[in-house]
Design a protein that fits this description.
Chain lengths: ~425, ~475
């Protein structure tokens, strides 16, 4: 026991080590607070939806409540959807600073709405977030390198190595004990602040332990790399340079190269093309006989085909039908687009097995529900909800039932789960 | 041969003989080359793709059948932003902003389909461009190569030997600095060659490219001086390395991320939902053109009737519905502009706050300068949005005017079976709407925007030089 304490005392007596550990603890706290602030501001924005929506709907009802036309209600009513952050989202903001987490939709063509982004400053987004994931993925290895590069070479350089080898148990045990103390010190600096914040944010204990386990594995990877380099018996400076080079390659250069390779290997048809095709289909309806539109619509949705026929006047049945037809006409392309994005994500995830920094980022954003998969899942929920909205309005419209002021309140509400 | 150049030659020889150092030099030079080629290829592909899409959208717009002008207002138009001439050097915000935008009446849409929304998590690891290599990787490799410049001589006690042989300390320091600067130059050459090729393309400004090169030269020069200074100040090679890596991490990784988070917190940006609801509420306050009893449009109607000296809108020589459409669009667009301007102001304020942190990190100064020169910064993006909005307004108003002049009020309000045919105007009108052309900022404006960043980098270089002079003096005394 006393030997362990001695190692710790030795570690803390080194000014570089102590300063490094203190800095690491400080940066952990700052990164956690920064993430919490970002996610809190998103929660506040989501909390504002209800009041904004109430004002907006009151005005819509005031203006169009007397029309009894379900079509005009569908046309003028925006329905909010949102993607609430998970309790762990503060640790890895991931896609949440660029992907919209709130979107209002109408029961019109969805393809023209679902890709709308939120307002954000692209220069701030480009820089990336200073969140806990960034601290773990990029900064933590540098601290491990600082603490581990001279684990053995310091002894060689100070001439104590021979003495250590003369110990009955051998030098190996000393290095092992020393390495373990340093790993624990690093983990304490990043782990304790995380545990405190995570408990405060209501992260499930199993998830909390999983993040700690991941961080431990990551630290062990870099420590093992450092010990591997140390076996070569170079000087402290050469060790440090070698380890930092490895870090640059694994954390910066290879992911950037892999990114280029994945984009090349998995082409994704640009979304703008789909949006254009949908627009053409929707607007083309004005130039073809209305019966064609209705036939196509009723063929696909026979449940509404008993509806009263159109007169010569404009009717929302036709309007909503061609919006539906427009979406349906690009459904295949939209599905392929989504699949392409998912395939790219999966390719990057597989890469995580080879490149630990990528793997860390992938797992953290996955667990935090802030990766591309989570955004695609949100889009799936929007699609699902949009379908409910359509059925709701179609029920009145194609059932030729009047849509009164009270009916506005009966529209299905978005369920974020 | 002077002592300084002798020192430089022997230093370079030593670096080239050291396999690790040589590998580092070759690797970065290769990366600079590869990133230039890859990025150029990528941008050319994006340019061709967007140009093709733009042509297809234009073709579809021009060949619309006879339609009611208001149908065309809703049919709208797609506009694409072509990458700027230097975008391959520094992609900047291009992957984060959408490259296409849908323009239609009564609505202001966002630019959609940025690369970041169509890719994987790797987008956030940084894009492999010459700018990334020179901003992030090159300084670190200079640190690896140069941290021992003087610290190693001191550690081994060879510095004293050199000086005993009659080499003045100044010559030793400047010779070593020159050697490191030579390596930095080697890193810049492939990227600069690519940059020169891009700047030769039509529409690019050679002057801007030269200032951009100057910015990078100042930046890497500053790192060389800093490396030499720290290497002189710190007695042990290992400590010099750790200190320099810490400076690098702080300046290249940490501050450029902390600053935006602070800017985000300091200047909250209204989100889209808030903005849309706000615009809708403001619009209702001004007036509802669909409401016959609306006071604003009742006044508008009175004024129109008076101007034409008639009592009924049926007697007007123009289609009243078209006039209302023109007036309605004028009102909504005024609101859009006001909200967009407020959002742009906040974003600029955020970036100014980030720029403030270039006092802590020269990388921020260079990053902003580089994006501004490549026209891939926020300003260039907002410029695209503004011009797209101006184009949208012109197009919609031209169509609304066409409704006023080309469709009679009687036809426009008719509901008989043949009315739909009579409401349509001839399709040749669509081709008379001028296509969208993005007008990039002039070279003079860009050069003006580059000045502050250049000065900040110069100030950093001077400060680092002062540190080096001080460090060299201490060396002299310590001897």
């Amino acid at each position: 026991m006393s030997l362990w304490r001695l190692e710790l005392a030795l570690l803390l007596r080194s000014r570089i080590a102590l300063a490094g550990l203190l800095l690491l603890a400080l940066l952990s706290v700052v990164s956690l607070l920064s993430g919490v602030h970002r996610i809190d501001s998103q929660r506040a924005a989501i909390d504002r939806i209800e009041a904004l929506q109430r004002t907006d709907m009151a005005a819509v009802v005031a203006a169009h409540g007397d029309s009894t036309d379900a079509g005009s209600a569908a046309y003028y009513s925006f329905h909010p959807t949102w993607n609430p952050p998970s309790p762990l989202a503060f640790a890895a903001v991931g896609m949440r600073d660029v992907a919209p987490f709130m979107l209002r939709v109408r029961a019109l063509g969805l393809e023209a709405q679902i890709h709308d982004g939120d307002i954000f400053n692209p220069e701030l987004a480009l820089a990336g977030r200073f969140d806990y994931a960034f601290l773990l993925v990029f900064l933590l290895p540098l601290f491990v390198i600082v603490l581990f590069h001279d684990l053995r070479s310091a002894e060689t350089e100070s001439g104590r190595e021979r003495m250590l080898h003369a110990l009955p148990a051998g030098a190996g045990r000393v290095y092992l004990r020393r390495g373990l103390v340093r790993v624990l010190a690093v983990l304490a600096c990043v782990g304790l602040p995380f545990v405190a914040v995570a408990l405060h944010q209501g992260v499930a204990p199993s998830l909390l332990l999983a993040v700690l386990g991941l961080a431990t594995a990551y630290v062990l990877f870099w420590a093992a790399l450092a010990l591997l380099v140390a076996r070569l018996g170079w000087s402290s400076a050469t060790n440090a340079a070698t380890l930092a080079t490895a870090w640059v390659a694994i954390a910066l250069v290879l992911p950037a190269l892999a990114h280029v390779a994945i984009e090349r290997a998995i082409p994704v048809g640009q979304g703008a093309e789909i949006a254009r095709a949908q627009r053409e289909a929707v607007n083309g309806a004005w130039d073809i006989p209305r019966e064609h539109t209705m036939q196509r619509f009723y063929a696909r949705y026979p449940e509404w085909s008993d509806s009263a026929p159109l007169g010569t006047d404009f009717h929302y049945k036709w309007y909503l039908a061609f919006h539906q037809n427009g979406d349906d006409s690009v459904a295949l392309e939209a599905g392929a687009y989504r699949d392409g994005i998912e395939r790219r994500s999966r390719a990057a995830e597989r890469l995580g097995w080879l490149l630990p920094p990528v793997g860390m980022q992938v797992l953290l954003t996955r667990w935090a529900g802030t990766d591309m998969q989570a955004h695609l899942a949100y889009q799936d929920r929007i699609r699902d909800y949009h379908g409910q909205l359509r059925r709701f309005y179609y029920g009145y419209l194609f059932g030729d039932r009047p849509f009164t002021g009270e009916d506005f309140d009966k529209a299905p509400r978005f369920d974020p789960e | 041969m002077s002592a300084a150049s002798l020192v430089m030659r022997s230093e370079l020889r030593a670096m080239l003989r050291n396999r690790t150092a040589l590998a580092g030099i070759v690797l970065v030079a290769m990366l600079a080359l590869v990133s230039t080629v890859v990025s150029w290829h990528h941008m050319r592909g994006a340019e061709e793709y967007r140009a093709r899409q733009q042509a297809a959208a234009q073709e579809a717009f021009d060949t619309q059948p006879d339609r009611h002008p208001h149908r065309v207002v809703h049919y709208g138009h797609f506009v694409y932003r072509l990458p700027s001439a230097l975008a391959a050097f520094d992609a900047g915000v291009d992957p984060f902003t959408g490259s296409s935008m849908f323009l239609e009446g009564h609505r202001q849409n966002t630019a959609n389909f940025g690369d970041v929304m169509q890719g994987s998590v790797l987008t956030r690891f940084g894009k492999l461009t010459p700018a990334f290599v020179l901003q992030v990787l090159a300084p670190l490799v200079l640190v690896f190569l140069g941290h021992g410049l003087l610290a190693q001589e001191r550690e081994r006690g060879t510095l004293r030997q050199l000086m005993l042989q009659g080499a003045p300390l100044r010559a030793i320091v400047s010779g070593k600095l020159a050697a490191l600067s030579g390596i930095a130059l080697l890193f810049m050459l492939p990227a600069f060659a690519g940059l020169a090729a891009m700047a030769a393309a039509p529409g690019a400004s050679p002057g801007v490219a030269v200032v951009l090169m100057l910015g990078y030269a100042l930046y890497l020069g500053l790192w060389c001086v800093l490396v030499a200074a720290v290497s002189s100040l710190v007695a042990r090679r290992r400590d010099a390395l750790l200190a320099l890596v810490a400076v690098w991490a702080l300046s290249v990784l940490l501050v450029p991320r902390v600053a935006p988070d602070l800017a985000y917190a300091a200047y909250p940006l209204p989100d889209r939902l808030q903005t849309d609801v706000g615009i809708a509420a403001d619009l209702r306050r001004i007036g509802d053109s669909h409401d016959p009893d609306d006071p604003y449009f009742a006044g508008f109607k009175r004024e129109v009737l008076q101007r034409h000296g008639v009592d009924r809108i049926e007697d007007l020589p123009v289609n009243y519905k078209g006039l209302v459409a023109v007036e309605g669009e004028r009102l909504t667009s005024g609101l859009f502009d006001r909200y967009a301007a407020r959002s742009a102001d906040i974003q600029h304020a955020q970036n100014r706050l980030v720029a403030f942190f270039s006092a802590l990190s020269p990388t921020i100064a260079l990053r902003q300068l580089s994006m501004a020169a490549a026209a891939t910064d926020l300003s260039a993006h907002l410029r695209f949005l503004e011009q797209a909005e101006a184009h949208r307004y012109r197009m919609v108003q031209q169509l609304n005017q066409l409704q006023a002049d080309g469709v009679s009020y009687a036809d426009d309000t008719a509901r008989d079976a043949d009315a739909d045919r009579r409401k349509r105007v001839d399709s040749t009108h669509w081709q008379q709407i001028p296509p969208f052309r993005f007008e990039p900022a002039s070279a003079r404006v860009l050069l003006g925007a580059l000045l502050p960043g250049t000065l900040v980098l110069l100030a950093w270089l001077l400060a680092a030089s002062a540190l080096l002079v001080l460090a060299a003096r201490r060396l002299e005394v310590a001897r």
